[in-house]
Design a protein that fits this description.
The protein has 438 residues and is α/β, with parallel strands linked by helices. It has helices at residues 6-34, 46-55, 71-84, 95-99, 113-125, 140-153, 167-177, 212-216, 242-259, 360-373, 381-400, 417-421; strands spanning 37-42, 61-67, 90-92, 106-109, 129-132, 157-159, 184-192, 267-273, 286-293, 303-310, 322-328, 332-336, 340-344, 350-355, 404-407, 412-413. It is 36% helix and 20% strand.
Length: 438
């Protein structure tokens, strides 16, 4: 056997070292690629565009689809993708194209409300994790079905109530749990701002760039009218939940979170109608609703949540246009989920303060981390469902002008048959997106 020279040894060692380094680099690259989620965005309107700008800037996701039934919005989304330098993104109008792609790990859903739960249920059943905008449902039954589907399929569902991932809101709730303001008995949430009239319109032909039938989806068939879109659909019962479901749900969610209630109330009552606008809106511009949790029946265990809405107020209330006040036995804390918080002790003595804006990026990060870890996200489907249920109960009690008594576990209204029918909705017969079990 010939002797191995020093040169031979060094050359052999160098080749081995290079091969090992290349193998190690390939393994790192493969692991890094596996750590990147393949995602899609369904709904490219106002909030969808906010999601899109964040997604194309992240390194831990790969955006593969943008989807919208409006060709103009779809083109605008594609332009944002192009400008960002992101490649390989398909622009499609039918969400089924996205859900049929088995390589997609997660979808963001920023559609109108009537598509939230139906699209999310289809997505989890197709094996996708879901980030879905608020309110998580158009009606109470849908929200429960989505929660059940997420659990059955073992998928992560994050609802777009981003206050749950916003540092100053998290700190404020922490202060409550620490007992700084004593035992919190009551929380009050409010939505106080000046909205615009949507006018009155007659049915007309939809614009060429809109697939209106696909936009309607599982909702009952109806004619297009020009003050339905864009964004105005939320004031129509077939498609939205009014401003309480649009802006109010953020503050209702914070109120329920800080109040510490983990189930449905047993009683909901309220008054509300149109005091200001004379237009096609079908929801109240003025609402005052109250919910009660009986606890174990003792006075100390009871909790109450109040919601106020005035869509004709060009001023802020208690320092915040949209806010929540927690009333404790030793003080009060007032939170503006997009601004900050202030604590007041006995005799209005100022306490801790905090500031900040709603943190959408942090909410995305929490969702992505939970997809990878399997942990429940900050705004899990169940949390979103319980908060949306308060929205729907408020709208039912105002619509019927009746106090509602609820079976909190079965999620049925026991006091009134007409009210209980509104726990569900009417769907378009035979439509492919109607959730099973509605």
């Amino acid at each position: 056997m010939p002797a191995v020279t020093r040169r031979d040894f060094l050359q052999t060692s160098a080749v081995a070292t290079t091969a090992a380094a290349l193998a190690s680099s390939a393994a790192v690259a493969k692991a890094a690629a596996a750590d990147v989620l393949n995602v899609a965005l369904i709904g490219c309107g106002g909030m969808g565009t906010n999601h899109l700008r964040n997604l194309v800037a992240r390194k831990d996701v790969k955006l593969s689809y943008v989807c919208d039934v409006d060709a103009n919005r779809l083109a605008a989304a594609a332009k944002i993708v192009e400008t960002s330098g992101t490649s390989g993104v398909q622009a499609v109008k039918d969400l089924r194209k996205v859900l049929d792609d088995k390589t997609i790990d997660a979808v963001w859903i920023a559609t109108p409300d009537h598509w939230h739960s139906p699209a999310a249920i289809l997505a989890v059943d197709a094996g996708k994790h879901v980030y879905v905008e608020k309110p998580v449902s158009h009606n109470i039954r849908e929200g429960r079905l989505l929660t059940e589907a997420a659990r059955k399929q073992k998928k992560i569902v994050q609802v777009g109530t981003q206050s749950r991932s916003t540092p100053h809101c998290m700190r404020a709730v922490e202060i409550i749990k620490e007992g700084t303001i004593g035992e919190v008995k009551v929380a009050k949430a409010w939505n106080s701002q000046l909205r615009s009239s949507i006018g009155k319109q007659q049915p007309s032909s939809p614009p060429d760039y809109l697939d209106f039938d696909l936009w309607l989806g599982p909702a009952p068939k109806r004619e297009y009218q020009s003050n339905l879109l864009p964004g105005v659909w939320r004031w129509f019962r077939d498609f939205g939940a009014g401003d309480i479901g649009n802006d109010g749900v953020h503050d209702i969610d914070v109120a329920r979170w800080g109040l510490g209630v983990t189930g449905n109330p047993s009683t909901a009552t309220g008054l509300g109608s149109k005091f200001f606008f004379d237009d096609d809106q079908q929801f109240p511009d003025t609402q005052y609703c109250v919910f009660e949790w009986p606890g174990d029946g003792t006075p100390a265990s009871k909790r109450q949540l109040i919601f106020e809405q005035r869509d004709w107020s060009p001023y802020v209330q208690e320092g915040y246009e949209n806010g929540v006040a927690f009333y404790g036995t030793k003080g009060v804390i007032i939170i503006g989920h997009t601004v900050g918080f202030q604590v007041f002790g006995p005799r209005n003595k100022p306490g801790e303060t905090g500031s900040g804006s709603a943190d959408l990026v942090a909410h995305h990060t929490n969702f992505i981390e939970c997809v990878k870890s399997g942990k429940r996200p900050n705004s899990d489907a169940e949390e979103g469902h319980l908060s949306a249920t308060l929205v729907h109960l408020a709208n039912i009690t105002c619509r019927l002008q009746k106090t509602l008594h609820l079976d909190p576990v079965k999620e049925i209204i026991t006091s009134d048959d007409a009210a209980n029918k509104l726990v569900r909705r009417n769907y378009r017969d035979g439509h492919w997106a109607v959730p099973k079990g509605v």
